[in-house]
Amino acid sequence: MSAAWTFVCTTAELLPGEMKTTFDETTGTPIVVFNLDGTLYALEDRCSHEDFELSAGHFDAANGGVECVLHGARFDVRDGRALCAPAYEPVAKFPVKVEDGGVYVRDDR
Fold first, then answer.
1. Which residue range or ranges hold the Rieske domain (predicted)?
2. 96 Cβ contact partners less than 8 Å away, ≥ 6 residues apart
3. 88/82 Cα distance (integer angstroms)
4. Averaged pLDDT, groups of 10, the chain, 109 residues long
5. Sign (positive/negative) of CA torsion 42, 48, 52, 56?
């Protein structure tokens, strides 16, 4: 069974430099979507170092990173890879699609 797409927001509600969170009801996964210079990326909204919401941290649109407020771990929003300690494991990355002015994501694991 393929995962269902989850509506996040309209494209007008997610401008460059902004992020939005949603919850994949099918898998129970919190997801955060980033608009990096007009391209949308989605990651699991959970720091791989400690179970904490990445969306509570700072999205640095200049370098494409998000920083966890708990211990300062940073991740690349484009592919989820850890950029510095204390995180060493990547964060799960999910597909994003734009359809009829809406932004959708899904946990495809």
1. 6-105
2. 33, 40, 41, 42, 103, 104, 105
3. 6
4. 84 98 94 98 96 96 97 97 97 98 95
5. negative
